[in-house]
What does this fold into?
Amino acid sequence: MKTVEDLRKLREEVRQMTKLREGEAEVRVVVGMGTCGIAAGARETLGALVQEIAERGLLSVVVTQTGCLGLCEREPIVEVNAPDGRTLYARVTPERARRILREHVQGGVAIEDWVIRN
Amino acid sequence: MEELALHILDLAQNCIAAGASEIAITIIEDRAANRLTITVADDGRGMEPEMLQSVTDPFFTTRTTRRVGLGLPLLQAAAELCAGGLTIVSTVGRGTTVRVEFAHDHIDRAPLGSMADTLAAILAVNFEVEVVYRHEVDDRVFVFDSRELREICEGTMQHPKIIQWLKEYIALQERLLGGEQ
It folds into this structure.
């Protein structure tokens, strides 16, 4: 099912979903996509986030990217920007990314073991 | 990097950092000539000749968070190891084109890897850039233009459900093309 018709159907589905959630607080999830991030697996981390958001219908979550943060050895780095604050996570594998979405973004509880502290 | 597709993602990041509004990615696999050529061209701000000379130097970078820039030097080394090379053409105000070439059958050449994942990653997080992708394998070709997708999606293109659909669509087309995976 990979035709333009399917895509149009999906577009209408997405529109309906978006209408229902208008006005919800937005959470931004930012993935480090510098050379260091990409070499450490950031593309797969980003892919897992997109897939999980699509499957769970988490419409108030927006995924964006940033460059190198100067913590190359701790990539892939993911930042969660929620209304209650900003959290940086280190070495975010696709599996960790899915857990961060479930437990932190959806559940509201940060996973302390993976958080980068200054 | 384990896949050429990851280098392509890294090159696309340079295009975005250069303020590109369009990125043209072309992969040509000519097995009769034993060549694999990748071209990434953008319409970003371009580079002065002095800067162009230093971008393949690992100790040159435009960022301020670390002092080495490994993206282009790594790719250049990978190409030179495989009877190929890397060339960059850039004009200030017009854009930059990076062309990298490999011997197709070279034992040290990294596999192309997943272009579906790379293209989906670019489009998922860059809301204003258009990507024109062309992959030729001998006499077959797959072409994808994000503008066509944007037109069909009418403002919903960035949604993860659409990006996921797109990733699966490209993966299928790439498999049908029968080239490097």
Q: What stands out?
A: The first strand of chain B starts at residue 22 and ends at 30. Chain B touches chain A through 36 residues (CB under 8 Å).
